């Protein structure tokens, strides 16, 4: 294996003079000198000149790990295991410097904390082969502005997409049970959230603190909404629920709504909603669709 050596200049910068037939994988020895003291480190150069390998960077290696751009993961199929690409507590982690994530077809499960806290990433591409997204899998993607979840996904864990505080758009077919805190703290979403038909249960705090959302559409299949599921929807003007039988709710399911928020329900069910446990607190605001 060829060995290349570079010496840092007065600013601590260096260039490694690879030969023209460089093919990747060579060992690089870097020696820095300051005030008559020298320090050497050894590392291996990228496996290919233009990237390559299972993890590829879309940016540059200038000031690494800054400026690395999008990360594309390839040569992986099936399950991405727990904590596999976790951002970690260190803000200097390469995963916390990436501006986006591109995953390949063939991945079927993204397990707990797999991509936790990629807090500089503004884009995410999830392939339509994925069926399961685990707890906290994409929690704290605080720079993401738009989310698209393929219809292949039938299970989304607790906190899976929590704290997407800049996200203003979502395209998703939600699974029949929406888990606790799975989409909580979307504090920039300022339009209408529509929950699709087929959803039966929305667990506690699932959509808590969407404090700029203006309206909410709930499906006819809904039977249960747990505590604080839609708490702190303080900008919401209209909640429409298509279920003919009032879903079971808790006293805090819709806590902190503004007093002018209206509920629309099927015409034949207005009286039932007005009399139902916890719905009765909103009786004067329940109207026919």
Q: Give the structural class.
A: mainly beta
Helix-strand sequence = EEEEEEEEEEEEEEEEEEEEHE
Helix content: under 10%
Compute the average pLDDT: 89
The order of strands across the largest sheet is 15-17-19-20-21
**Residue ranges: pLDDT <50 for 5 or more in a row?**
47-51
Our Rg estimate from Cα atoms comes to 25 Å
Describe the main β-sheet briefly: 5 strands, parallel
What's the end-to-end separation, in Å? 74 Å
Strand content: 25-35%
Tell me, what's the shape?
elongated
Q: How many helices does DSSP assign?
A: 1
Number of strands: 21
List key phrases describing it.
4-stranded mixed sheet, 26% strand, mainly beta, 289 residues, 5-stranded parallel sheet, elongated, 2% helix
